[in-house]
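Bench log. Compound arrived from synthesis this morning; before running ITC I wanted a structural hypothesis for how PBG sits in the protein. Inputs:
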Amino acid sequence: MGFPKTRMRRLRNNDTMQRLVRETVLTVDNFVYPLFLCPGSNVKKPIESMKGCFHFSADMVAGEAAEIASLGIPAVLLFGVPEKKDDKGTRAWAEDGVVQQAIKVIRNTVPELLVITDVCLCAYTSSGHCGVIKNNKVDNDSTLELLAKMALSHAQAGADMVAPSDMMDGRVGFIRECLDKNDFSDTAIMAYSAKYASAFYGPFRDVADSAPAFGNRKSYQMDIANSRQAMREIELDIEEGADIVMVKPALCYLDVIREARQRFDVPIAAYNVSGEYMMINAACDAGYLDKKAGMLETLYSIKRAGADIIITYFAKEAAKVLKK
Ligand code: PBG
């Protein structure tokens, strides 16, 4: 039955009608807001390459965490920049490390805010790689132990969830076992399962001072051309014990998010990364794009593709817009 009996515009007649038939709901409950911690005290320094983002010292994080929680955002994702780097990235699991301190501050001041921590060595190693170097290569198996130490130290400080982003094989199982052995069976794991070797992490590398000193990350992060392989990565992480799986970046990989949604029943997170965020900001600054509309269209696309959770630097701005 086609036109003129069928008229698609009937259900678009007014806002209320559109509200009734809307298929995708975007809410603040979907958002995770990334926060960057740095050494020192009394620091809140704007990050030049990422408009609207700051480096916080642990003592300054309480105010920010309170604001995030008051906007209704359920969780933060913590990244740390250590005071010094070395071969193994030992500051990554230091009890007095910047992330460990910040976790405690948030736990004590804003207990309702979920604390998720990024688990990766790249900001902590002198090579800037996500693992330890052996024979000029990033060595998988000797890295696992260090990642587990890092995850455990976050759990001990009070993190609700750890998020390994290094893309070493077997790390989810290794971390799960280590947490369980140490009585942290309730600490959840959100695995960066399908993390691509993407150009869109550009602005972030400045933030975390984590650009590799030699080579690139293509021997561990995924080839941008692959999607079946992403399904295998996700499947393995679920088998190893991941509670939530992630696709990263989000926008160039909406097909991967959709495919994962259709195949798997665990919650799916998508990381709307720094380059995606700054691309939109730059277009707005140049006058090519309306900020509010461009931001919402981006976030809706990620949700519509099938993501349950969206990790985004837009979280605070979007929360304010969605509240109205
Ligand atoms: C660390 C890590 C990166 C991001 C999150 N965790 C950088 C990278 O892999 O190079 C990127 C986040 C962003 O670009 O917003 N491994």
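What the model suggests: The CA atoms of residues 9 and 18 lie 10 Å apart. The chain has eleven helices and twelve strands.
ITC booked for Thursday regardless.
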